[in-house]
C-alpha cells in the first residue's frame, strides 16, 4: 500500500515549511560551484558542508530537507570518468547526508517540541539541468515523453531506494517531462513525489504552457502527492497558486527564488533580494491563496525559512 508521507504534516490545515536553497547557500559559505555538477560537485569534494546546510535548515524550522542530487545524474558523473556504480553511490550519499542531519537534529529532545520528525526529499532535477546550459529555463527539449522517462528512470530508482521519504521532482519546464516522471512513478509502486514547475509569469511554465492545464492533467496520478512551482520569481506566485488550487485536490507547494533574477546564459543574478521579513509576508499571502507547503529556492537561506516558520506559528 502506498503511503503519503505528507499527510501528518498537513493535517488540521497546518502549513508544511520546506527548506531553502542548497547550491546558492553553499556558495554563500564559500563553495565554488561554477561547474556542470553544481551542488553535486560537493558530494565529491565537501560532503560535510552539505550536511551542515541541511542541519541549519532544520534548526531554522524546515520540515523537509531537499537533497544535493538535483544535478547528480549518471551522464554528468560519467563525464567525470566515474562508473555507474560510483555515480549511484554519490546519489545515495546525497540522501545519507540529509538523513544524518535530520537524525542528529531529532536526537535532541528540545528540537521535538511542537515539531514532527522532518522528512528527506530526494531532489530530481530536470533533463535540462543535466545539459547545464540553462535548458530547464526554456524547455522545448525536442525529446519524446518516452525518451525523457528513460533519462529519469534509473536515477529515480536509485534515489527512491536510498532512504528518502519521497522525491522532489523540481524546476520542471514542461508538461511532457512531468508526465514522463509520472510514468516512471507508476512503474514503481513504492515511489511518491512532488512535482514543481518553473514558471515565467503568473500563468505559464517556462515552456509557455498554462500551469492550470498542467496541474489538471497531473491530478489523475496518485503517486504525485503535491504539485506546485519553484525557481520562479516571487511576484508571480500568488497568481500561480490560485490557478493550481482551482485545478487540483492535491496540496499546492511553492518555493520561489529570493526576488533576484537569474541570467541562465551569463550565469549571474541581478536585482535585489527580498529581506526575510518581507519574504514571510509574501509567504502569508501565498498561504492565504491556498499554498500548503512553502519554502525557498535560489538565493533564499535559513533566515528566510526561519521567518516562514515564525509566520506559520503566529
UniProtKB/TrEMBL annotation:
Top EC class of this enzyme: transferase
UniProt cross-references to InterPro entries, sorted A to Z: BHMT-like, HCY_dom, HCY_dom_sf, Hcy_S-methyltransferase
Keywords assigned by UniProt, alphabetized: Metal-binding, Methyltransferase, Transferase, Zinc
Molecular-function GO terms, alphabetical: methyltransferase activity
Cofactor(s) required, per the database record: Zn(2+)
Domain annotation Hcy-binding: ranges: 4-312
Sequence positions that bind Zn(2+): 231, 297-298
Any single biological process term in GO: methylation
PANTHER family: HOMOCYSTEINE S-METHYLTRANSFERASE-LIKE ISOFORM 1 (PTHR46015:SF1), ZGC:172121 (PTHR46015)
Protein name (record): Homocysteine S-methyltransferase
Species of origin: Rhodoferax mekongensis
